[in-house]
Design goal:
The protein is α/β, with parallel strands linked by helices. The protein is 30% helix and 23% strand. Strand 2, helix 2 and strand 3 form a beta-alpha-beta unit. Bound molecules: flavin-adenine dinucleotide. Flavin-adenine dinucleotide binds next to helix 7, helix 8, strand 14 and helix 10.
Amino acid sequence: MAEVLVLAEHTEAGEVKKVTCELLTAARRLGAPSVVWTGPGAAAGQGRLAEFGAEKVYVADSPEFDGYPVAPAAELLASLVAAHSPAAVLIAGTTEGKEIAGRLAVKTGSGVLTDAVNITPGPDGAPVAEQPNFGGAITVHSVVKKGTPVIAVRPNAVSAEPAPAAAVLEPVEFTASDAAKAARVTEHVVAEKGSRPDLTEAQIVVSGGRGTGSADGFKIIETLADALGAAVGASRAVTDAGWYPHQFQVGQTGKTVSPQLYVAVGISGAIQHRAGMQTSKTILAINKDPEAPIFEIADYGIVGDLFTVVPQLLDEIAKKKEL
Ligand SMILES: Cc1cc2nc3c(=O)[nH]c(=O)nc-3n(C[C@H](O)[C@H](O)[C@H](O)COP(=O)(O)OP(=O)(O)OC[C@H]3O[C@@H](n4cnc5c(N)ncnc54)[C@H](O)[C@@H]3O)c2cc1C
């Protein structure tokens, strides 16, 4: 069976990110998944990789992955593509992942597909990627015609399903070239992480828009998110106004999310916002304007003032929790 490379996203301690399990699930449809592990922690992550179907794990435990940005990872992948001729390389569609994918495609003379929300084998077995375009208005199915297909898959788009395999660790010698070391990481600043789930990985996202009226008004979004165990998102109107930090912006120029439930509160549903949340499994919109475009894509809609509707929702959630 053809080998499919999956670049692992993980912490230094070896905690495997959920998106890696999603990539493994997609990779199994195309062939035998081999994980590419950069840096330390592979032994700690091995069990989880095995659970989701990794046959092999190429481990390049070099400090260079931490000391330099994405270039060494692209170089490592290019060397593995040359050595093993995989059927495809799957990478998480994060900001870093997409950059690695682009660099890898250039290095290997291959086509690259980004923002895939699904991958299936085509009639000849080659991967067919499903991509939403123009803010989700059009869905296209794309194939790579040249080289080894490099595909960046959106986190949360594929449901991770376990299928045990061996996940045999295979050490790989790797030294980054001088070119890959042209840009160096000078400092790591740990982002303050509250108790809420990560925005791009959360099962539920509650996002607030200009309808919240102010930074103070936006606090109701945090309250609803906490009641639901959700991550908080925001429209660009909110982040530009300084009511909430930019790192929580959802949309074309912000984060792309695809949770099980997306709650859009006081958000009109501009195409640039939709581009970042349209593939959410279920969308609930709360807006006082029945003509707001967000209702065109919402599965459930509540027309009303958010400062009346959200407190009622909170009461109902509290009652359910008491049961
Ligand atoms: C190049 C480019 C990139 C962009 N990238 C992004 C992006 O990444 N993300 C993004 O979000 N936007 C982005 N935008 C901006 C986008 O076009 C919209 O301006 C923005 O999404 C609007 O945010 P909003 O829905 O919060 O505000 P508005 O469009 O002003 O909508 C506010 C909504 O709240 C409702 N409302 C008001 N008061 C209440 C109330 N009390 N109760 C209930 N509802 C109420 C109103 O009916 C309205 O529908 C981008 C724009 C450009 C040009």
